[in-house]
Amino acid sequence: MTTLSPNVFKSELKPIWCPGCGDYGVVQALYRALSAIGRPPHEVAFISGIGCSSRIPGYSTAYGFNTVHGRALPVAQGVKMANPDLLVLVAGGDGDGFSIGGGHVPHAIRRNMDLTYLVMDNQVYGLTKGQLSPTSPRGLETVTSVYGSFEQPINPLLTVLSAGAGFVAQGTPADMPGLATLVEEAIRYPGFAFINVQSPCVTYGEDDQQLRAHKTRMKSLDSVGHDPSNFMQALEKSTQYGTELYTGVFYRNPNPPKSYDVLVRERQETLKPAAVPRERMLDMFLQK
Amino acid sequence: MATKGIDFAKLNLRDALDLAVLIEEEARDRYEELAEQLEVHHTPAAAVFFRKMVRVEEIHRSELEKRREQLFGKSPVMVSRAAIFDIEAPEYDVVRASMTPFEALEAAMKSEVKAHDFFAAVVPRVSDPEVKKLFEELRLEEVEHQQWLKVEMQKTPAVKDVPGDQSDGPNEQ
């Protein structure tokens, strides 16, 4: 296998995220993970929605598509079906994934294409200057909740676990090497893989959500004896989203089912003998 | 500040030199990244200082690389960047739009202290006397860098950014 430097995946475009933003560490973790996987940029595609974190495709030399708000997953599934050999990574924020695109998440999970979905969860709409997002904690004061939010936040980990995701993990750029390892593991998982990345918004985020706070709060799941093959344990741990900052793999299905793209290939092989030859396909539509 | 998969008790001089090269390389690349962030966000004075640090770290890196080549030639490098994180590199969250040159100096000082503490912590774990000597030398160099930064800080107005004043012009991309 050829060794690729992480810098091979770095594009000439300079990120315009705010200085100190967590997404800088996330993109470095992605470069590292892709370098460890060893597939060249032309075999990789980044698909994103809209938001600060959705700018990621521009910062990579891999193929990229910065789609429309909340529609990264449908486009990514289309890309994967059109070219199943591509390694497809999906990136977006908590608003893009769990509000505007929230309806796509369970269906992408149950379809189970071999995709890696990274949500950069900063609990706020940063790009539009600090409104409540679906993962904002109850009581958060923002420009759209001046006296504090009444809303129960979505728990991304519990949401994807309950929808049946086979690989669920959480990381933070405060532990960039750990995050790179998680991304690598997620890519290697043969099916839909989800990583919730606690990536702080340096401009509109709360103090206790910043990288400095992560460094003291984060607790690896390994260190608390978590068994990632135990689904019930994963559910229990995921309920602590918002109170504990667990990092690592919550759940990895020990017997992953075949992914959608593999099943499609198999069906194509099964149907091939009965298929109409290409040169006779037009005959079906023409009266002779 | 972390290392992964390095057994300091078994570290030989060649790998120790390669590790030192990578530590300087990581710091150089991080200063470059932070300088770019500040340039994009109209904070040129702090960016100029980080650019200076890029050159300083590159000088250190190339000196170590030359030494490695003199001793061991072009033999393969057995340690990788994946084995280190934030040893001398400033952390991602030390920068802010509109930070002052003094704050940039403070960030660099923290990194030099961090690097010093790293070498101080690993020296007792090293068995090879030559590696011990090298790490001790690098630890003392970090002290010299701290002295240089202290002098620079004395020459720089101790002005800090006003919290909440994050006015920043639009960017095109």
Q: What's the name of the CATH homologous superfamily of chain A? A: Thiamin diphosphate (ThDP)-binding fold, Pyr/PP domains
Number of strands of chain B: 2
CATH architecture of chain A: 3-Layer(aba) Sandwich
How large is the radius of gyration of chain B? 18 Å
Q: Structural class given helices, strands, pairing of chain A?
A: alpha/beta
Level of helix content of chain A? Answer: 25-40%
- CATH architecture descriptor name of chain B: Up-down Bundle
CATH class of chain B: Mainly Alpha
The whole-number mean of residue pLDDT values of chain A reads: 95
The strand order across the widest sheet of chain B is 1-2
Q: With helices defined by DSSP (H or I, 4 residues minimum), what is the helix count of chain A?
A: 9
Q: Give, in order, the helices and strands of chain A.
A: HEEHEHHEHEHEHEHEH
Characterize the structure shown.
The complex is a heterodimer of chains A (288) and B (173). With 288 residues, chain A is an alpha/beta fold. Chain A has helices at residues 23-37, 72-82, 94-100, 104-111, 156-162, 176-188, 211-217, 231-238, 260-271; strands spanning 44-48, 63-66, 87-93, 115-121, 167-171, 193-198, 218-220, 245-252. Chain A has a single domain (6-256), classed as 3-Layer(aba) Sandwich (Rossmann fold). Chain A has an 8-stranded mixed β-sheet with strand order 2-1-3-4-6-5-8-7, sandwiched between helices. Chain A starts with 22 loop residues before the first helix and ends in a 17-residue tail after the last helix. The mean pLDDT of chain A is 95. Chain B has 173 residues and is mainly alpha-helical. Chain B has a single domain, classed as Ferritin, core subunit, four-helix bundle (Ferritin, Up-down Bundle). Chain B has helices at 13-40, 44-72, 101-122, 129-155; strands at residues 2-3, 84-85. Chain B has a two-stranded antiparallel ribbon. Classes of the chains: A alpha/beta (288), B mainly alpha (173). The interface between A and B is medium-sized, with 27 and 26 residues.
